[in-house]
Amino acid sequence: MKTMQIKTAIIGMAIVAGLAGPGCNSLTKTQKGAAIGAGAGGTIGAFIGKAAGNTALGAIIGGAVGGTAGAFIGRNMDRQANEIKQTVPGATVVRQGEGIIVKFDSGILFDVDKTGLKPAAQTNLTQLSKSLENNPQTNILIVGHTDATGSDEHNMDLSIRRAEAVKSYLVKNGVDGSRLSTQGKGKNEPIADNNTADGRAQNRRVEIAIVANDQMKQEAKQSGE
Questions:
Q1: Residue 61: its pLDDT value, please?
Q2: Is the pLDDT of residue 121 over 80?
Q3: Whole-model pTM?
Q4: Is-contact 99 63, C-beta < 8 A?
């Protein structure tokens, strides 16, 4: 099933690449994000993210506006991604299209099967909250993930509570709660093999998708007029 999902996503991405134009290989990440957004639109973008089994990626691609406006948003995201890389040492930061994915291994944030944030996690999230406050024209989706150990019900509940714990801490540190949403995916979106200890550790994670809000999108569209 997972292989079929990935194949479906690849086919969708190939369609998007064709729409984006033959010169795609020479584009920067920002330009590629603009091209994908213009060619695919939110509907196809969200489908690709869902088919690939990655909710955070789907949020970014699904919300893309594309074109000149998308390039404007991409430049803002380039700047914020660099800021997060420099100030949040415990995070893995990936620029994707018109957004940013910030990933924390759950071992950095939580003890095994717990939802209380570790002291080091609080330090990382305090630094992240500063970047989010400095860049108010974004919305943030927090997605919790677990490995396949334990029951489906327990894993889903744990992933939800961990995502909510991260949200609560960011709000406590000044981030407007209206900008934040959460999802728990349990064991349903693995990025590694659950049959190995290392794979299970990779699957236990929290991903944070940062995307442009309506205000930034409007400014981006006006900048291209």
A1: 87
A2: yes
A3: 0.80
A4: yes
Secondary structure (3-state) at 144: strand
Q: Residue 2: is its pLDDT beyond 50? A: no
Domains of the chain, earliest start first: 2-223 (3.30.1330.60)
Q: How far apart are CA 216 and CA 73, in angstroms?
A: 7
What phi and psi values does residue 63 have, to the nearest 5 degrees?
A: -95, 5
| Cα–Cα distance measured from residue 215 to residue 225, given in angstroms and rounded to the nearest whole number | 16
Measure Cα distances from 159 to 65, 88, 173, 186 in Å: 30, 22, 22, 5
Q: Which amino acid is at 23?
A: G
> Taking a C-beta distance cutoff of 8 angstroms, is the pair 38, 13 a contact?
no
What lies within 8 Å, CB to CB, of 13 at 6+ separation is: 48
* DSSP code of residue 69: H
> Which residues, 6+ apart, have CB-to-CB distance to 23 below 8 Å?
none
Residue 183: enclosing H or E segment and its boundaries? strand 180-184
Q: Among all chains, which residue has been given the structure tokens 């993210």? A: 49
More confident residue, 56 or 41: 56
Comparing C-alpha atoms, which of 55, 5, 57 is closest to residue 184?
Answer: 55
